[in-house]
Amino acid sequence: MQKLFVDLKKDVDDSYEIHIGRGFISEKIDELNQKSKFFVIDSNVYNLYPFFQNLQNVYVFEASEKSKTIESVEKILVFLKNNGCLRDSILLAVGGGIVGDVAGFAASIYMRGIDYYQIPTTLLSMVDSSVGGKTGVNLYETKNLIGTFYQPKAVFIDMDFLNTLSDEEYKNGLAEVIKYALMFDEKFYSLLDENSKEIEDRQEILESVVYRCCEIKAKVVKEDEKEHGLRMFLNFGHTFGHAIEIDSNHTIKHGFAVATGMYLETLFGHYIKKVNDETALKVKNILNKYSFELKYSFLNEESFLRAIASDKKARQSGISVALTPKVGSGIILKGVGIDLIKEFFVSLRS
Ligand SMILES: NC(=O)c1ccc[n+]([C@@H]2O[C@H](COP(=O)([O-])OP(=O)(O)OC[C@H]3O[C@@H](n4cnc5c(N)ncnc54)[C@H](O)[C@@H]3O)[C@@H](O)[C@H]2O)c1
After folding, report:
1. What number does the ligand 1 atom closest to the CA of 131 have?
2. Residue 120 burial (10 A CB sphere; 0-12, 13-18, 19+)
3. Which atom of ligand 1 is closest in space to residue 42's alpha carbon?
4. Which of 61, 69, 98 best tests ligand 1's pocket when mutated (most atoms within 8 Å of CB)?
């Protein structure tokens, strides 16, 4: 088993370990037997893995963006209270990003915060959402508007969970993997480029891919826990990507929207002369290699642009867009006006 360390020693020590391996999860959960344990488990994972059906204090959660709400958090809090969860109890979030975000948020506010552990079961949650302590829920159609920064006590990544993940959900996570390479690590880009077949087939190399993503995320979070600088690089593809999710009425999944978003943001960067031809081609190449759709036709241009303007990353001074002027390094453009973005989309059509 491999171990990483998320180093967050500031006013309080919020540091924790990420464990990455295979077939270790039941043992790991048993090892945590010093306190009373409560579980929030994704319903599909619960049904697929009989081990979870033998546990006590389990709240089975049907994960979807529609159920990622404050009402769901309230139900979890009531479940915790009714089953005797106390300050020194622990909560284990078992599932994809939705369970991790919702259960993590519940843990952060129950009795002003109880310890929790992330046990991610999708590729996206392994490489991204389980690390870094962002928790939260949607408020009506606005994604992740309510939330906290609340770090888990540890993250346990058991690669075996990926054996049951659908191809669509797997590919959803691959978009975030590509994002790390484009923003942070040119060598990692080459690895993804040269081993696309093995990675798509979920071969052994995948563990080192997950490890590298977590290593990058841990470093980013160490430097910028609350997203004032470096952590904003992780939003590459997300400013346009979130608007695609909303405009498509969530028929396009997050990762697929982010993939198209990364390409459109790169073209935007090219349009304003911050990204050169070579980089734009490299972005296109890697997304093509993993067969992501690069084009997007708005259902409603006005609402698409409104979604960009009202993105939660937007400030009064304008919109922030993460760009990669050179593969492996990023920049943040702040204060981008919606008129410039409108102009860019007009230019794309002509
Ligand atoms: N907190 C963060 O930093 C952060 C970062 C990125 C994304 N997110 C959030 O993560 C969410 C998306 O997460 P996701 O892509 O993991 O989606 P998800 O949690 O909806 O899971 C996707 C689907 O996979 C199923 N599933 C989960 N594990 C499985 C397994 N091992 N085998 C078979 N099926 C399984 C689930 O039941 C669900 O139907 C979004 O809400 C997004 O906002 C959060």
Report:
1. 3
2. buried
3. 37
4. 98
Regarding the beta carbon of 257 and ligand 1, being less than 6 Å apart is answered: no
- Which residues are CB-neighbours of 82 under 8 A, at least 6 positions away? none
Just give the CATH number of 2-163.
Answer: 3.40.50.1970
Residue nearest to atom 11 of ligand 1 (CA): 97
**Whole-number mean pLDDT of the chain?**
94
312 pLDDT above the threshold of 80:
no
Question: Residues spanned by CATH 3.40.50.1970 within the chain?
Answer: 2-163
Sequence ranges of the chain with CATH classification 1.20.1090.10: 167-349
Q: Which CATH class is domain 167-349?
A: mainly alpha
Q: 192, exposed or middle or buried, with CB in 10 Å at 0-12, 13-18, 19+? A: buried
* Residue 319 clears pLDDT 80, i.e. is over it: yes
* pLDDT at position 171: 97
Q: Is the CB of 144 under 6 A from ligand 1?
A: yes
pLDDT score, position 11: 66
pLDDT at site 250: 84
Residue range 126-168, pLDDT digits in tens: 999 999 999 999 998 788 899 999 999 999 999 999 999 999 9
Exposed (0-12), middle (13-18) or buried (19+): which is 110, by Cβ within 10 Å? Answer: buried
